[in-house]
Amino acid sequence: MDTHRLHTSALFLLLLVIDAAMVTEAKLVPNYYRKTCPRAERIVTDVVSQKQLSHPTTAAGVLRVFFHDCFVSGCDASVLVSPTAFARSERDAAQSQSLPGDAFEAVARAKTALELACPGVVSCADVLAIAARDLVTMTGGPFYPLRLGRKDALASSSAAPDAELPLANSTVPRLVAMFAAKGFTVQELVALSGAHTLGFAHCAEFADRIFRRGNKGGGAAPAPHDPAMNPAYAKGLHDACRNYQRDPTIAVFNDVMTPGKFDNMYFVNLQRGLGLLSTDQELWTDPRTRPFVQRYAANQTAFFADFARAIVKLGVMGVKTGRDGEVRRRCDMFNGNPVPGG
Ligand code: HEM
Ligand SMILES: *[C@@H]1O[C@H](CO)[C@@H](O)[C@H](O)[C@H]1NC(C)=O
Ligand SMILES: *[C@@H]1O[C@H](CO)[C@@H](O)[C@H](O)[C@H]1NC(C)=O
């Protein structure tokens, strides 16, 4: 009996040790590149800052790409893989079509600089995480320290983004469920939605809110629009998007008041009916999310603290470590891929 118990506890200890080893391996650390590429973060910061100065839409694009990367199969740069003649990738998904080229270009440039300084060392998943953080900070948002050591995915599914990402017309209960399924609270959903303080959305994403049945003829009557929307704002969007079906590239600012600044204006806007997407405005309408909108609209410090905590959490979702991944040489292709034209 005693022997049995001894064996059992020995086995238990052994399992604990194995478990601890696996946890340790999967754990990201702050100074991951201290020995192998000490200037890694500095290099990314320099490159993306330059890019942001010349192309001010970069910050929003990179932040959104980071969200799409992490929310779909983990923060593993699967979103960066380009399709080839032989294989589709996440970029083929409908939900990926509006991800802006400047964001991919910023990451590619940072990676090129890193490959010159320390070839084959810094993963694309880490580059994207650092770039998103730096651009949030650079546009006025919080700085948050990052743990590094993510590996790059060995797969990129064209079906996953549309299955896993919310749509602009998702209901709040649906958003809450989708975020809960990934381990996020209602408050974290609201805090992360504050990312829409930056960037653009294309008219098709909110057309249902401003072109309602009965107004297709464009008569003199005021535009019937989503009653949750501020009428003057609806009119402005109606005008801006008038030709969106002919020109689907027309896009407007997510935050109409301070579009290029990472601040809490997004939440102030929601209180005034100035939310652009249905999913934005409904955070104010729904009694579950409304108190957090109120809190962040009143207190930017609280928003920044909660956003930082939530995006750090987003940034460790489903990370690949060890043999589950690789350090890509180029962010847009797996190392195993044949060289284009070769
Ligand atoms: C809550 C659910 C969310 C929905 C339904 C949603 C949906 C969308 C949509 C439809 C757009 C417009 C895309 C376009 O037309 O180009 C957009 C833009 C954007 N989203 Fe979200 N999003 C959500 C959450 C997030 C989160 C959590 C983040 C980051 C933490 C984020 C960051 C962004 C950014 C920065 C943009 C602007 C992109 C640009 O200007 O290129 N979104 N989002
Ligand atoms: C929501 O939007 C998607 C694509 O943008 C569309 O296919 C779908 O029909 C919309 N759903 C509702 C309920 O309007
Ligand atoms: C704003 O939020 C911060 C962080 O939660 C808190 O320390 C501070 O007291 C709040 N300020 C006000 C005016 O409520």
Automatic annotation (TrEMBL):
<feature type="binding site">
    <location>
        <position position="166"/>
    </location>
    <ligand>
        <name>substrate</name>
    </ligand>
</feature>
<dbReference type="InterPro" id="IPR000823">
    <property type="entry name" value="Peroxidase_pln"/>
</dbReference>
<feature type="binding site">
    <location>
        <position position="255"/>
    </location>
    <ligand>
        <name>Ca(2+) 2</name>
    </ligand>
</feature>
<protein>
    <recommendedName>
        <fullName>Peroxidase</fullName>
        <ecNumber>1.11.1.7</ecNumber>
    </recommendedName>
</protein>
<comment type="similarity">
    <text>Belongs to the peroxidase family. Ascorbate peroxidase subfamily.</text>
</comment>
<keyword id="KW-1015">Disulfide bond</keyword>
<keyword id="KW-0873">Pyrrolidone carboxylic acid</keyword>
<keyword id="KW-0376">Hydrogen peroxide</keyword>
<feature type="disulfide bond">
    <location>
        <begin position="37"/>
        <end position="118"/>
    </location>
</feature>
<keyword id="KW-0479">Metal-binding</keyword>
<dbReference type="GO" id="GO:0140825">
    <property type="term" value="F:lactoperoxidase activity"/>
</dbReference>
<keyword id="KW-0560">Oxidoreductase</keyword>
<dbReference type="Pfam" id="PF00141">
    <property type="entry name" value="peroxidase"/>
</dbReference>
<dbReference type="GO" id="GO:0020037">
    <property type="term" value="F:heme binding"/>
</dbReference>
<dbReference type="GO" id="GO:0005576">
    <property type="term" value="C:extracellular region"/>
</dbReference>
<feature type="binding site">
    <location>
        <position position="76"/>
    </location>
    <ligand>
        <name>Ca(2+) 1</name>
    </ligand>
</feature>
<feature type="disulfide bond">
    <location>
        <begin position="70"/>
        <end position="75"/>
    </location>
</feature>
<comment type="similarity">
    <text>Belongs to the peroxidase family. Classical plant (class III) peroxidase subfamily.</text>
</comment>
<feature type="binding site" description="axial binding residue">
    <location>
        <position position="196"/>
    </location>
    <ligand>
        <name>heme b</name>
    </ligand>
</feature>
<feature type="binding site">
    <location>
        <position position="74"/>
    </location>
    <ligand>
        <name>Ca(2+) 1</name>
    </ligand>
</feature>
<feature type="binding site">
    <location>
        <position position="258"/>
    </location>
    <ligand>
        <name>Ca(2+) 2</name>
    </ligand>
</feature>
<keyword id="KW-0575">Peroxidase</keyword>
<keyword id="KW-0964">Secreted</keyword>
<dbReference type="InterPro" id="IPR033905">
    <property type="entry name" value="Secretory_peroxidase"/>
</dbReference>
<dbReference type="GO" id="GO:0046872">
    <property type="term" value="F:metal ion binding"/>
</dbReference>
<feature type="binding site">
    <location>
        <position position="90"/>
    </location>
    <ligand>
        <name>Ca(2+) 1</name>
    </ligand>
</feature>
<dbReference type="InterPro" id="IPR019793">
    <property type="entry name" value="Peroxidases_heam-ligand_BS"/>
</dbReference>
<feature type="disulfide bond">
    <location>
        <begin position="203"/>
        <end position="241"/>
    </location>
</feature>
<feature type="binding site">
    <location>
        <position position="69"/>
    </location>
    <ligand>
        <name>Ca(2+) 1</name>
    </ligand>
</feature>
<feature type="active site" description="Proton acceptor">
    <location>
        <position position="68"/>
    </location>
</feature>
<feature type="binding site">
    <location>
        <position position="197"/>
    </location>
    <ligand>
        <name>Ca(2+) 2</name>
    </ligand>
</feature>
<feature type="disulfide bond">
    <location>
        <begin position="124"/>
        <end position="331"/>
    </location>
</feature>
<keyword id="KW-0408">Iron</keyword>
<dbReference type="InterPro" id="IPR002016">
    <property type="entry name" value="Haem_peroxidase"/>
</dbReference>
<keyword id="KW-0732">Signal</keyword>
<feature type="binding site">
    <location>
        <position position="263"/>
    </location>
    <ligand>
        <name>Ca(2+) 2</name>
    </ligand>
</feature>
<dbReference type="InterPro" id="IPR010255">
    <property type="entry name" value="Haem_peroxidase_sf"/>
</dbReference>
<dbReference type="GO" id="GO:0042744">
    <property type="term" value="P:hydrogen peroxide catabolic process"/>
</dbReference>
<dbReference type="InterPro" id="IPR019794">
    <property type="entry name" value="Peroxidases_AS"/>
</dbReference>
<feature type="domain" description="Plant heme peroxidase family profile">
    <location>
        <begin position="27"/>
        <end position="335"/>
    </location>
</feature>
<feature type="site" description="Transition state stabilizer">
    <location>
        <position position="64"/>
    </location>
</feature>
<keyword id="KW-0106">Calcium</keyword>
